Amino acid sequence: MPGAGRALDPDHDMYDWAAYDLLQFRTVRGASTREVAEIIGKHRSLISKIEAGESKLQLEDAKKIDKSWQTGGHFTRIINLARSRHKSEWGAERDASEFSAIHIRVWSLGWVPVLAQTEDYARAALTEAGRQDVEDAVRARMKRQETLKREAPPLIWALIDQDALEHQVGDRDVHAAQLAHLIELASSPTWVIRTVPRTAGGHVGRDGSIELYTVGSEVIPYTETVGPGRLITDPSETSQYEVWFRRIGDVAESKQATLRRLRETVEEF
Fold it and tell me: Residue 75 and residue 192: Cα distance in Å, rounded?
């Protein structure tokens, strides 16, 4: 039954707008979900999920519907806007994906990954970055780490840039404690930590940090930027982020070499 999943909010959420209009356009045309599914080459159950707000209309499918129904690009424009416009919900959706993920892959360019940060390191990082709401942000980061305390915690693969390890954050004691914590995590069965050395050169990871959350059979990428990041909701984009993560991993040091580097670096502090 359309709308049974949750109440759509087409006035504030563009994907909900597309879902609402899909149902309206389909009803006016007297088209069944099966007929729409045939247009996009997908199973009819997907159409019901889109109209119920349980799945998102994707760009390629929007184009096919526009062409078939001669809408003048109506659905394509909505999805393009949804993909390009920042959503305030992305952070919350990222956190929800992180908390329920069975696997988490992280490439961290400038900082130690949030899930591996000590509270003192997080506070120093936020303070030095000029955040005004430091304590609120620290609490939010520590709350994200609650996923590590689950009965079945996620398996985490963390690729960390060498500069993120060696660039001092906070005083020497704070940074040394952070490195010691990374050594502890690197020795645990649920973490794989590998350093990407400066000698790796101009690899694809230099463009920015990324996170990939495996939730069930779905992989959800999240890109970090200055300011709000971007949650990748289009499955057609996901495979590219997985390729980029593998390419960064290709130039990373081994687990053993990373442990040696961490121990040598912590001695310097």
Answer: 42
Nearest to 39 by CA among 15, 2, 1, 71: 71
Q: What is the pTM of this model?
A: 0.71
Encode pLDDT of 10-37 as tens digits: 988 888 999 999 999 999 999 999 999 9
User: What's the rounded Cα separation, in Å, for the pair 209 and 201?
Assistant: 16
* Residue 255 token pair: 């687990």
Q: What is the largest CA-CA distance in the chain?
A: 72
Q: Sort strands 218-225 and 227-231 into parallel, antiparallel or unpaired.
A: antiparallel
Which residue ranges form the domains of the chain, and what is each CATH number?
14-84 (1.10.260.40), 90-268 (3.30.870)
Give the separation between CA 96 and CA 91, rounded to whole angstroms: 9
**54/248 Cα distance (integer angstroms):** 33
* Spatial separation of the C-alpha atoms in residues 158 and 212, rounded to whole Å: 11
Nearest to 209 by CA among 259, 253, 248: 248
The model's pLDDT over 56-110, given as tens digits with 9 standing for 90+, comes to 899 999 999 999 999 999 999 999 888 766 555 677 788 889 999 999 999 999 8
Residue type at 261?
R
Q: Which helix (H) or strand (E) holds 191?
A: strand 191-196
Handedness of CA 245, 97, 195, 141 (dihedral sign): positive
With 0-12 / 13-18 / 19 or more C-beta atoms within 10 angstroms meaning exposed / middle / buried, residue 27 is: exposed
Q: How far is 42 from 36, CA to CA, in rounded Å?
A: 9
Contact 261, 195 (CB under 8 A): yes
SS3 content of the chain, % helix, strand, coil (to 5): 55, 15, 30
